[in-house]
Amino acid sequence: MDPRVKRHAEVLMRYSLALKKGDKLIIQGEHFTLPLIKECYRLALELGAHPQVKILNSELSEIMMKQGSDQQLTFIHESDKVAIKTADALLTLMGSVNTRMMSNVDPDRLKVASQGNAEIFKLFFERMAQNELRWCGTMFPGQSNAQEASMSLSEYEDFVYNSCYLNLDDPVAKWREIEREQKKICDHLDAKKELQIISQDTDLKMTIAGRKWVNCCGQVNFPDGEVFTGPVEDSVNGHIRFSFPGIYSGREVENIQLTFQNGKVVKATADKGEELLNKLLDTDAGARLVGEIAVGTNYNITKFTRNMLFDEKIGGTVHLAIGRSIPESLGVNQSAIHWDMLCDMKLGGKILADGQIIYQDGKFTI
User: Fold this and answer.
1) For the segment 311-353, what is each residue's pLDDT rounded down to a tens digit?
2) In the chain, at which end, N or C, are there fewer CB atoms within 10 A of the end residue's CB?
3) What distance in Å separates the CA atoms of residue 19 and residue 306, rounded to the nearest whole number?
């Protein structure tokens, strides 16, 4: 076995989830992630936790999306509710045997499924905000995701593990260093009231007064590397063009351009996937509002891979999410969706806070 798999499990269990004796842990992932599942399971037992494994199957999800009634698409099993209500820690191993499984699903059905998940997502984020549930999402490298990134499997393994700093002797020390560096940025931004993002075809203003900037350093996502907040919901004005395709359930939406007025998307266009874009914006009242604005800080991630776990962390980018706010940021927008879209800032992009430049050409200047 690749020794980095064991190191991956060590960081997840001891640092990201900080697992302790008596914790009820749920580990979920597709069958191909079993090498990492087994290492995490073994270590969880060693730490005195009570692990439970849930094997996911994207083929069954496809059958549900294509054949299930609206009632079935929105139904939440009681066992899933109980799991979210009672677990102390949840580990999600991302990745699929086929990243394009949902490519031909009717956008209306994707919208219905998103609406059906609203209740469980609300509970999930509430428990996380109250520090009752610790969650981490990570990636186990597989063939399908390697193909999406235009890499061989061995190249993708190197990409994943390097982005997590698992190539270092002490990756946790590196993540603690990142935590300290990003705390300075968050403390600076917490004192600001207005934010402006300027880049190619982009000039977007928003109010951030009274909101909290969150320091993402390998505990909720792994890899990590971003700082984010939730802007005041009715304050976003201007326009933004996203340099990279938006990815939703494996479907690409290219050259997305959004115009905001008093917090709401009033115009949305795309060169490809515009129908899906507008269907998702119509999911519910909160889907046209901004739930998150963030800056990627992981300069070990230099390539767009069509997976937002990595792409939103790319150093020199910002991303904006329409839909649900993350409660930790003190944002209050409610929606069944939370969709991140990515904008490159490395060529002339800048961010101003209260009229002062704090970020230029992909790097903070504070």
Assistant:
1) 999 999 999 999 999 999 999 999 999 999 999 999 999 999 9
2) N
3) 31
